[in-house]
């Protein structure tokens, strides 16, 4: 079987269907076995984050179930969620906060209002996985040694659109004891792709990156000079503020293991931070057998995927629904029930 992966940043919608047609044609031309495979479109995030790594790796194993995934990376996932709900694509990596906003017709979906709320009824989840780990990074000689030192500083808090900015701000507020963007520090918004270079150019003091643990791009930062990655103190982890930050932001507690990054002056100890949660989502009209096969392909091959790509090793194989807030597809429910896996009541379709 064959999977097709396309990495692109921003293309006009008018080109999407043409590209899909060309990909299908090329795949069919590859051989009779591929011609018999079911072909589905799947949109993911950045190629260097788990929002891109998971779909790309997963596609190889979905092919073994007779499903050829046409994976398109580099997408704005709030937009992908809307395209999925409208039936314009078959699958998408969906941030739970984005689905929550769509269900209420607010945030990036405010212009669609009631239409967005109605479309959210079309979204079904297969499984959850971490999208990326929040790394609060500053230069070792910047004078920022703990979260309270962010007061009065310029802090990168994510792109102008999407859910990440609220997640980052929530973590900072909890970890610092109440600091808020706009009042206590200057929150700088910019596209993910430009953020690291802007940090290196001195445009902000603290760079909160969203990346897989062990990212080579982050490792390269210390080639310029030593860095400091801030961990959340133990005394914060038991507070209501930390619990609220995780709950509201659909975040999960995670760790950056000691020794992960060279040139990190706090790298001699495990650092607690937060990771975003993502859902692999499909349209409600997907047939049950396909949803079942897709769910099976992920969970029964996850250990192999983690062994093949070290950046996936932060995935908790026992946390199947972390952050998931869309109802499960009936086909996924069948897989979990057959596997004897308890399903939270709020996720039942």
TrEMBL record:
* Designated name of the protein: TRAP transporter TAXI family solute receptor
Superkingdom of origin? Bacteria
Q: Which InterPro entries match?
A: TRAP_TAXI (IPR011852)
Any one Pfam family here would be: NMT1_3
Classification via PANTHER family: SLL1037 PROTEIN
